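Example complex used in Figure S2.
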Amino acid sequence: MGNQPMFILSDDSQRSRGQDAQTSNIEAGKAVAESVRTTLGPKGMDKMLVSDSGDVVITNDGATILQEMDIEHPAAQMIVEVAETQEAEVGDGTTTASVLAGQLLAKAEDLLEDDVHPTVIVEGYNEASRLATEAIEETAIDAEVDDDLLEQVAETSMTGKGTGGVAPERLAETVVEAIRSVEADDGIRRNDVRVRTQVGASATATELVEGVIVDEEPVREDMPTSVEDATIGVFDVEFDIREANVDAEYDIADIDQLNAAIDAEEGELASYAETLSEAGVDVAIVTDSIADRAASYLAEEGILAFESVSDDDATAIARATGASKVGSLEDLGDDDFGHADNVGVEGFGEDDLLFVEGGDAAESVTVFVRGGTEHLIDELERAIDDALDVVTASIETGGGVPGAGATEIAIASHIRDRTASIEGRRQLAVEAYADAVDVLPRTLASNLGMDPIDGLVQLRSEHDSEDRAGVIAEGQTGTVGDPMEYGVLDPAAVKREAIESATEAATMIARIDDVISAD
Ligand code: ADP
Ligand code: MG
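Predicted assembly (519 residues):
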């Protein structure tokens, strides 16, 4: 190779190292976390996001905000990933996790300025995060995970989200009922709870449907729109003349041969309805197309049929009703079909919805969300999704912890109690972690219109005298009290995951001291 320089970077790539790289990463991470800070808690503000194409999302949901923002900086992107992981793992606590990650970065910056080595910061943060998890276990509420507790957890997760005037306790009841109906011996079949939105009615019309709702209209208007005690077939079959026939060239010598050919095709189109009717099928869910003539024979047989049903919807109906997806109409057996007490098509404005309800279909449930506008209904859907997730998390991984900042106060205090026994500079990092956790109660207090410092001081002193204390939303402001008395509790799993993912992102970003970017 001689003296040829070897280029591993293209000409226009940029490189920054050491303090510079760290500072710019940390600044970017902090900025992203800052952008969702004001949405934390029950009185958090909503954000309105407008995309390039002009779509508008109004939301209070941390994960949604970060998803919609067009974030390119790699370190900032890591904070977005914190929110995404949090959303995927437990479904709530996204703002908490990203605000914490941002604050951990801010504290790391101070430590770096004081010449604490990144490795020491990482060690200290990891140690503190272990202590935090310990504190969460200690704070966990020692009570049976019953419907009351679950409803409180559900309601807590929805406070602050626009629920369009529906009483949160009613939504919480619906959510708990939904999860309870898919609880099996081997866990919660979370995927069997679906959320379906439909504009046009007030949000108070939101209800739980025992079954599946899909957005489909019958292939013909003269089909029945309601079938009781229905036998349902789900078909991956094209209801048409088979290709071979279509392509065949008839050598038509006389009119008889022409008629015979037409009869053969007609017979085939009629055969679908005959086969289904003989098999006792009342409702046909078809993922492929249905030819017009085939559809009219189906209608004559009184069969309610749907064509080009999406795979998702067909699978949902099959799962719920106990049908198997059938790929051929030969050898149909009774166990291929599913059953439901009621299958009905209802019109909602321009849309037709298919309800498959009751009987076997009740294996799945659908939260049927109503609301006056798209924006309202979207936010309501996000709130319900969060609530479904937190109820699932509470049942599956051990209950709740007091909300409203009380658990965070307990975490910070537990960490501080242990710092004295930690040697060297690592102690500084552990202490810094505790200070970072304080951002959560501080932000909650400030978003409730309280003085954040006074709030924090009060919470600490209550905690020191062994009282559980959080900042509770009350009227136009906040008050310090026992969150349990106000029914404010979060799943332990949400706090655990927030600690874990925020720590991971912050330590990863703090460790980077060389950034090579091609642009
Ligand atoms: P996240 O995305 O982190 O879930 P939220 O905006 O949903 O953010 O706020 C969650 C925080 O709000 C939790 O700490 C929770 O305990 C707290 N919280 C919920 N309801 C209340 C309430 N009524 N009073 C005070 N804090 C509450
Ligand atoms: Mg939340």
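The CA atoms of residues 146 and 395 lie 9 Å apart. The domain at 211-361 is CATH 3.50.7.10 (GroEL).
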